[in-house]
Design brief:
By secondary structure, the chain is mainly α. About 70% of the residues lie in helices and about 5% in strands. The chain contains eleven helices and two strands. Strands 1-2 form a two-stranded antiparallel sheet. About 50% of the residues are buried. Pathway: Cofactor biosynthesis; adenosylcobalamin biosynthesis. It is found in: Cell membrane. InterPro entries: Cobalamin_biosynth_CobD/CbiB. Pfam families: CobD_Cbib.
């Protein structure tokens, strides 16, 4: 086994670990990082962009630096390097848990139990469940599956291919910080600005690759490309736009519209307006599409890693 295949083997093993093990119920590394980032926030918080930028540097930089140190410690052992990559990949990707939560909500909706679906929705996204009916919940789940396929799987693999274990860990750290402080609430509008902008930058390549792979793996490649080109730029997020539009076109459904976050109502543009409304059965279709996209992303990441190391 040559050194330029270490990442490919390690990432494949990590994805298999995620497939068969999912996320641990206690002590997940991302949750541990989140608690640490929360502690740093309590020390640093000021209603100021500069302090927020320092928070991002300390937390994300510290996580990536620790990963870089670990990589240096195992670089003379190929088996240890592959094992470290596998462990890091398993820790940062979340495709299995994403699918499990989406299917649990879909099962509740299929059984007609909207209240249970509302109770579970916060496990998947930050929308106000009480403001949604069954169709609204199904649409929220499909949109969350699409966006989290990019954030929790493809983006991590892209940065792992480019930067090894530090790339994997650094990307997920930034993505976690964005979820914690990057939203536009009164408290975090300035403090979370740096984390949000950094997440936009790092998420750019993974989002475009996710959209391409959704078009390739979906039921309607032409529909995915058409929706992406026509509607992605209308979305307020530069990265969620291409992903959600491509998923909408690939599945033949209509996404977007009004939604509520923390009591704040947002009126987002419709994506793939020619598609039909989301149905409960589309949740399973979205989960399967997400899984196919993740597997294709692993192949792309393996090729990119081999090319990068081969040219070094």
């Amino acid at each position: 086994m040559s050194a330029d295949r270490d990442f490919a083997y390690g990432a494949a093993a990590g994805l298999l670990g995620d497939l068969f093990l999912g996320d641990p119920r206690r002590g997940h590394p991302v949750a541990v990082f989140g608690r640490g980032a929360g502690a740093v926030e309590r020390l640093l918080w000021r209603d100021h962009r500069g302090w927020g930028a320092l928070h991002a540097v300390v937390c994300a930089g510290g996580a990536a630096g620790a990963a870089a140190l670990a990589s240096c410690l195992v670089r003379d052992s190929r088996a240890a390097s592959v094992a470290l990559t596998a462990a890091a990949t398993w820790a940062v990707v979340g495709g299995t848990s994403l699918g499990r939560e989406a299917r649990a909500i879909g099962g509740a909706l299929a059984a007609g139990d909207v209240e249970v679906a509302r109770e579970r929705l916060p496990h998947l996204c930050g929308r106000d469940p009480q403001a949604l009916d069954a169709d609204g919940i199904a649409r929220a789940v499909v949109e969350s599956v699409a966006e989290n396929t990019s954030d929790a799987v493809v983006g991590a693999l892209v940065w792992g291919a480019l930067g090894g274990v530090p790339g994997l860990v650094g990307f997920r750290a930034v993505n976690t910080l964005d979820a914690m402080v990057g939203h536009k609430s009164a408290k975090y509008r300035r403090y979370g600005w740096a984390s949000a902008r950094l997440d936009d930058v790092l998420g750019w390549p993974g989002a475009r690759l996710t959209a391409v792979l959704a078009a390739a793996a979906g039921d309607s490649p032409r529909g995915a490309v058409r929706a992406w080109r026509a509607d992605a730029a209308k979305h307020p997020s530069p990265n969620a736009g291409p992903v959600e539009a491509a998923f909408a076109g690939a599945l033949g459904v209509r996404l977007g519209g009004s939604l509520s976050y923390g009591g704040r109502v947002e009126h987002r543009p419709v994506l793939n307006g020619d598609g039909r409304g989301v149905e409960v059965a589309d949740i399973e279709r979205a989960v399967k599409l997400s899984r196919r996209v993740g597997l294709l992303a692993l192949g792309v990441a393996a090729v990119v890693s081999t090319m990068r190391k081969g040219g070094a």
